[in-house]
Amino acid sequence: MVDRVPRDSVQSPEDQGLGGAGRSRRRFNKAALASAPLLLTLHSQPLRAAANCTISGWVSANVSRHPDGPEPCGGYTPGYWQGPASARQYPEWGEQREELINSSFGFPGLPSYTLIAGGGPGRGGGFEYLTLHDAVRGPGQSRVAEFNGMTERQLLRFGTATLLNARYLMDFPLTEAQVIDIVTTTLLTGSYTTAAGDTLTAPQVHYFLENTMDGQQSWGSYA
């Protein structure tokens, strides 16, 4: 399990130099701000996730209500998780990336997918079970025997990257449980229905997941 430290639990530099009484006064002063006008209170609260960063908001957004366009959701791309920098920045990922895609670290409800290693049987290669690290690699680098086209392969690639974003990034708008549900349901049934009743095809789910990553934001109405 990944340990995350809430931002509010990190002691500020100002508090580090205060004794118990000083910190108590600071807490009292902060509490007193609660009686300030409502506008101040609203500005002090975390902003809720942008509409395009949730699957229901992405697919049903009225573009006219968002004239500034979709907002960044803060996720890393599959290319980042594929490279060595991610394993250095997140050591837990470095330890877990060779776990199978359907292990408890990935998508437990999926079957065991088969990676075509090398040139495949009879061409100096063979078959191996797909790992999390294989999944975030490009389709040309890791072919999956069970996938006939690019849609499922890209869905699994971006789905795995989104799962890692949910696991390791504090402010990412999706939870691990949400990502697992979206990806597993879509790969097993070919579509995903949101809580609001909107049904997305597998390509649309892929585009939604890609939209949560840096520089890739979009609206579902254009997918």
Judged by helices, strands and strand pairing, the structural class is mainly alpha
Number of structurally distinct domains: 1
Global shape: globular
Helix content: 40-55%
Quick one: biggest sheet?
3 strands, antiparallel
**Could you state the order of secondary-structure elements as H and E?**
HHHHHHHEEHEHHEEH
| Number of strand elements | 5
Provide mean pLDDT, rounded: 77
Strand order, largest beta sheet:
2-1-3
Q: CA-to-CA gap between the ends?
A: 35 Å
Q: Beta-strand level of the residues, as a percent range? A: 5-15%
Q: State Rg.
A: 21 Å
Enumerate the spans where pLDDT stays under 50 for 5 or more consecutive residues: 4-47, 119-124
Helix count?
11
Describe this structure in words.
By secondary structure, the protein is mostly helical. The chain has one domain (52-60, 72-222). The chain is built from 11 helices and 5 strands. It has a 3-stranded antiparallel β-sheet with strand order 2-1-3, with no helix packed on it. Strands 4-5 form a two-stranded antiparallel ribbon. Helix 9 packs antiparallel against helix 10 (176-189) and helix 9 runs parallel beside helix 11 (202-211). The chain is globular and about 45 Å long. The two termini are 35 Å apart. Mean pLDDT is 77; it is low at 4-47 and 119-124.
